[in-house]
Amino acid sequence: MLPSVLPTESDHVPVLAEEVVAALDPRPGETIVDGTFGAGGHAGLLAARLRGEGKLIAIDRDPTVAPYFDRLRRATAVKARLHHGDFSTVLRQLSDNGVRVDAILLDLGVSSMQLDRPERGFSYAADAPLDMRMDTSADYTARTLVNEADERELADIFHRFGEERYARQIARAIVRRRNQSPLETTVELVDVIRSAIPAPARFGEGHPAKRVFQALRIEVNDELGALERALPAAQEMLRPGGRLAVISFHSLEDRIVKRFLRQAEHGCTCPPDFPVCACGAQPTMRATPRRAIRPSTAEIARNPRAQSARLRVGTKVRN
User: Fold this and answer.
1) What would be the CATH architecture of the domain defined by 17-113+223-316?
2) Using one digit for the tens of pLDDT, what is the confidence trace for 179-189?
3) What share of residues in the chain are helix, strand, coil (percent, to 5)?
4) Where are the domains of the chain?
């Protein structure tokens, strides 16, 4: 078991913790970034490896993480600071200001503490307002999206971001329901989803609302757009030899990370039909290892939420 500078009562279980620490391999004197701080589970493990010599930069768009960060800062001897905001924006600002670091972690998706707090509206298993904002100061909520987007837009969101087979039927049912009165709660939305899909599908694999809730959360928080903007900024921030680790929880995220690392490894951006390279671009990253790292059977047994996690790691080879 890896040592942590955080108290054991933390309500967050970091996924692929040993694998992340091994991949990023923090060393005393280095600067590390946790771009999705959450409750600080990963950050505490990484900071402990700095042995009091180094810096930790934490980023999170959720303002409720501040007490977790304060606890970590008191428990560790390293210099630490917290930036509130979308990691893509903060990473770009830091990079533009000349900040260079040795390791960056992005743990994507919704955190355990957000899922476990019903009032945040992320879970389909509890009755709560339709919210789903990672940044509680933002104006755009799941309630706004569900009640104002047109039927075609809703169906497209459910299909693209949730890979929902019954996207059109669910979108149509939502529009019919909101014409009577606005949808306000997660339970109301779950009831509409259940009514819109065939009976056999209600008892298939997983909860029938799982994919729609995922799609709404991704859209409300612009998760895929933020990831696509964050990866180049993270690469720029890394010193040569620096390590980037990204944990994703569904195929949409993982494909973006995989494609980014492959392009950075390849370097050349010329069209495939060019007989020779004309752009002169050189490889900037190397996937280490080439395949995604998955949680062990033992970890999944301890923490079922880890089952869908995939870790991809890249090492910067040149600026």
Assistant:
1) 3-Layer(aba) Sandwich (3.40)
2) 999 999 999 99
3) 45, 15, 40
4) 17-113+223-316, 118-221
